[in-house]
Amino acid sequence: MMTPEERKTRLREQKKAWYQKNKEHQKAQTRAWAKKNPERRREQHRRWREKHKESLSLRVRERTFGLSPEAQFALLESQGNGCAICKVTLALGIDKKAHLDHDHATGKVRGWLCGTCNQGLGMMKDSPALLRAAAEYLERSKR
């Protein structure tokens, strides 16, 4: 006699096997339903994206930069959980404003930044020379 857990596992395997055999038919039915019900499909999609927002952003960064979610968290931890420039505390997850900074020419990840520092680098065209000139300007104006 099967335990409830074994029964559940067996049923899951049967469903998976049936789907693999009937994949194209199922996809066609799903497309037809979505075409007939665009409003409901849009709402389903919106709810799914909202529910999976955190994992989606982790996966997008993984695809874009080749950095696994674990590596993303480890990088932030290695920075003391703060912005690499101003050290303000950062957190990854839903509605968190941590930015994964990268070299636009090479795609190489440099570190995590807060939104302000990330925009500042962008405004200065990621140019060390421009940033040094801006720092010197600020120093001169303090005298």
Biggest β-sheet: strands ordered side by side in the sheet: 1-2
Helix content: 55-70%
**Average pLDDT, all residues:** 93
Indicate the structural class.
Answer: mainly alpha
Shape verdict: elongated
Cα-based radius of gyration, to the nearest Å? 24 Å
Count of helices?
7
Instruction: List segments where confidence is low: pLDDT < 50 over at least 5 consecutive residues.
Output: none
Compressed to H and E, one letter per element, the order equals HHHHHEEHH
Annotated CATH topology of the largest domain:
His-Me finger endonuclease fold
What's the number of extended β-strand segments?
A: 2
Largest pleated sheet = 2 strands, antiparallel
CATH homologous superfamily of the largest domain, by name? His-Me finger endonucleases
Task: Summarize the model shown.
The chain is mainly alpha-helical. It has two domains: 4-50, no CATH class; 67-142, His-Me finger endonucleases (His-Me finger endonuclease fold).
Structural account:
With 143 residues, the chain is mainly alpha-helical. It has two domains: 4-50, no CATH class; 67-142, 3-Layer(aba) Sandwich (His-Me finger endonuclease fold). The protein has seven helices and two strands, in the order αααααββαα. A hairpin with a 6-residue loop joins β1 and β2. The longest helix has 18 residues, at 4-21. The protein starts with a helix and ends with a helix. The mean pLDDT is 93.
